[in-house]
Design goal:
Length: 267
């Protein structure tokens, strides 16, 4: 890919009759409000499909547009690009090929991201265009503890009765580290630390339990089907923070220290 080649997306789309000049003007006006990239704005407004845009950009840049479901991702290569930067640059390191690192990008025209990734990986890059959905799915499965959190939530749900959970089991000192609720919270904290989340929100809803983590000011959400486990998580956190477990109406402040990956973290 010629990383010096600059593409004016709006003009390119008009030239190929994907959008009209009026639609471009509307998108530019919306872009000023949201500060999002023009391509993303055009997609959000429904003026063009993401696949159409990426295929056109790939053609102009002399690269390919790929479906990551067809890729066998090398996890060692993936982890060479820190997750916080992968999410910031909307990119994922996939594998090595002929001395190059194959990197998928949702915006292959982003020259700054290209240069920064190449500095980090210290190898020439072979860029492919990928969809936002493909990127986020593979970042979640490649870096995070999403699957582990889901599995532990299922285990905890199975151990709980159809009524209230056994609060005494949360306070027992014997084999506490092996308790499902402890393992689940540990996985949630490890996940948050690995992606440098600034805060965690555990929000029970009618049908799902929402686990939200703020990354670069944006809340990233994981949904867990086992809503019944919410009281167990809440009570365990209250115990850890030295709060009143029986108080459910008034807000309470507390703090505790947890060890994550051999580091002591204040919460």
């Amino acid at each position: 890919m010629d990383r010096k080649k600059r593409i004016r997306i709006g003009d390119l789309l008009i030239e190929h009759k994907f959008i009209s000049e009026t639609q471009l003007e509307n998108a530019l006006a919306e872009q000023k409000k949201t500060r999002r990239k023009l391509g993303k704005t055009l997609i959000d407004l429904g003026y063009i499909e993401e696949k159409q845009l990426l295929e056109l950009l790939a053609e102009q840049l002399g690269i390919t547009y790929s479906d990551l479901r067809l890729f066998e991702i090398d996890t060692d290569v993936l982890h060479r690009l820190p997750e916080i930067l992968a999410r910031r640059f909307r990119a994922i390191a996939l594998k090595e090929e002929n001395g190059n690192v194959v990197v998928g990008m949702t915006d292959p025209t982003d020259i700054y991201a290209f240069d920064e990734i190449q500095k980090i990986l210290e190898q020439p890059l072979q860029i492919i265009a990928i969809s936002e959905g493909d990127l986020l799915h593979n970042l979640d499965t490649g870096y995070r503890k999403t699957e582990e959190i889901d599995n532990l939530a299922e285990v905890l749900d199975e151990e709980m009765s159809d009524h209230d959970f056994d609060l005494q089991s949360l306070t027992q000192t014997t084999n506490t580290a092996d308790a499902p609720v402890v393992k689940l919270l540990q996985a949630i904290f490890e996940d948050a630390i690995s992606i440098q989340a600034s805060d965690i929100h555990i929000e029970p809803d009618h049908n799902v339990l929402r686990i939200r983590q703020r990354i670069d000011g944006v809340l990233q959400e994981q949904l867990v089907d086992e809503t019944r486990i919410a009281p167990a998580l809440t009570s365990r956190l209250k115990l850890m923070a030295g709060l009143n477990i029986s108080e459910k109406r008034l807000p309470q402040d507390g703090r505790f220290n947890i060890k994550v990956k051999n580091k002591n973290i204040d919460v």
